[in-house]
Amino acid sequence: MEAIPRNDGEQYRFDAFCKAVLRNEARNYHRNKKRLLDREKSFSVLSLEELGQLTSVDHYPSEEFVFSSYGCDLHIDNELVANAFAALPKQEQSILILFCVLELGDGEIGDLMGLSRSAVQRHRTKTLNELQKKLKAHLPEGG
């Protein structure tokens, strides 16, 4: 295919137009690249806290232990904690589930379970202290 012959003036305007278009395209490319670089950070310059915000952890039902009481479920994904919790009597488990999951007060738990507020408070405090001692025994020295 042959190019249509043009006079020098038309060719000059066409060449100038093409150069202007290319200059604008290059300018836009560099402006967009600079905008992206201003917004982006390399992973190597992020703090551990910032990196932690970028991660997600998948939880699978097979990796967690579920304890239920009064229609309320407590999910524990740490095997050591779950074993310590499972070793508790059912009444203490129920008190902790209602306290931790439903965030009920001792009086409300007592009304639900047929215990006095002070009995619930005694059971809860004693049980939490026992759990803490059991779990601390599995920590390395100074942990």
UniProtKB/TrEMBL annotation:
By its UniProt entry, which SUPFAM superfamilies does this protein fall under?
Sigma3 and sigma4 domains of RNA polymerase sigma factors
GO-annotated biological processes? DNA-templated transcription initiation
**Per UniProt, what is one Pfam family of this protein?**
Sigma70_r4_2
Q: Which residues form the RNA polymerase sigma factor 70 region 4 type domain?
A: 80-128
MF terms (GO), sorted A to Z:
DNA binding; sigma factor activity
UniProt name for this protein: RNA polymerase sigma factor, sigma-70 family
**What lineage is this protein's organism placed in?**
Bacteria, Bacillati, Bacillota, Clostridia, Eubacteriales
